[in-house]
């Protein structure tokens, strides 16, 4: 499913946006985020690592403050509607089912949750869980950014060294 989604995005944006812009857009999309963007940047699109990393990091960070600061009031408002209430409850339940690590270790739990590239983790979900748990912005934002940096190193190695056959900073 994720592979088809990425191929669809690349196909839809090719010819309209540069390869670098496509990488940036993919890094902002929930589920794909920086992890998917770096996998696409090097091995698929051939974007040099020196361009890809800043684009992916910035694209992945942009949604974080909005999620941390606005998701709770938005969810509260949506729960007041008949149409969106069930969807919001499902989203909250799904996010909170992954909250143990963040709840227990807070800052470092959030760093690891965002930074270790496993299915269902990342900046979007980590920020959502932090907001739902009431973690203060001044603690959550740096933890998410640090997690994004950690994920960057891991995904750079996978994308450019293992899959890309590129030398360390090539």
TrEMBL record:
Keywords in alphabetical order: Membrane, Transmembrane, Transmembrane helix
Coiled coil region boundaries: none
Keyword 4Fe-4S: no
Transmembrane segments: 21-45, 57-78, 107-133, 140-163
Protein name (Swiss-Prot/TrEMBL): Small multi-drug export protein
Organism: Dorea ammoniilytica
